[in-house]
User: Which sequence fits this backbone?
């Protein structure tokens, strides 16, 4: 069910925000990053869409609290042009190990939260060390893909 991934260190274009749900954050965050790859950058260049779209989730302290989200698009190679839209920035994720749980269908805040909770329960039952203070959702498909969709939750391994 879960396998460790060794190295997440890579170049990304990112945006951060706080919201009640991942769905709410994705509406604006995804479009900001899509604008970047569509030419809203210093070089005014178009950049191919890549996958996954990776969202880091830092859960709020309670059910009626905002969570912190960082939405990321992978940008291949080095020397990516600087973003021109406010709130969009280039970043590198640190190398880390994560446990991965894959699932199909369309992802949403409720589905991703349930899959992350299932993964954390399985890790707890197996005695595996993990960090529950944040986790990731990785989406690999275009919104227009209907069948064979692939999503993942990534739970950081506690060091």
Assistant:
């Amino acid at each position: 069910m879960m396998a460790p991934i060794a190295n997440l260190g890579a170049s990304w274009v990112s945006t951060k925000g706080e919201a009640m749900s991942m769905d709410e954050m994705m509406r604006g965050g995804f479009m900001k990053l899509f604008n970047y790859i569509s030419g809203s950058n210093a070089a005014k260049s178009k950049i191919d869409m890549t996958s996954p779209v990776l969202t880091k989730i830092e859960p709020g302290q309670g059910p009626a609290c905002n969570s912190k989200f960082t939405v990321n698009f992978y940008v291949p190679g080095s020397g990516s042009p600087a973003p021109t839209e406010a709130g969009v920035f280039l970043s590198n994720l640190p190398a880390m190990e994560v446990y991965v749980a894959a699932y199909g269908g369309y992802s949403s805040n409720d589905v991703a939260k349930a899959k992350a909770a299932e993964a954390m329960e399985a890790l707890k039952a197996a005695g595996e060390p993990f960090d529950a203070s944040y986790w990731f959702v990785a989406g690999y498909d275009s919104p227009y893909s209907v069948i064979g969709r692939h999503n993942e939750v990534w739970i950081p391994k506690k060091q």
Notes: The chain is about 20% helix and 30% strand. The chain has a mean pLDDT of 90. The helical segments are 22-37, 109-126.
